[in-house]
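Suppose you are handed a protein chain with no further information: no name, no annotation, nothing but its sequence. What can you learn? This example shows the usual starting point.
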Amino acid sequence: MRVLMNKAFSRFARKAKLTDAVICNAIAIAESGLIDAHLGGGVIKQRIARPGEGKSGGIRALIAYRKGVRAVFVYGFSKKRQGEHRAL
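A reasonable first move is to predict its three-dimensional structure. Written in C-alpha cells, the prediction is:
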C-alpha cells in the first residue's frame, strides 16, 4: 500500500503537526473498512485526530483511495474552519 501526499496537503500536515504515523494510521483504519464518507469516484473523507485531541474536533482529509493499492492525501482542513471551505 502506497501512501502519498500532494504538496498542498504536505504543507497543511506540517502546520497541523500531523506525523507520518498518524497519517498512516488513518489509512490503516480505512483499510479495515472504517471509512467516514465515500464521496464517489474513489474519493473518501477520513477524520484524523489532532495530537492530544479526539477525532470529533480534529482534521478532515479528502483522499483519493483504492483499497490495497494506494492512498493520495489531496486536501485537508480543520473542522473549526469547515464553514470557510463550503464553496469548494
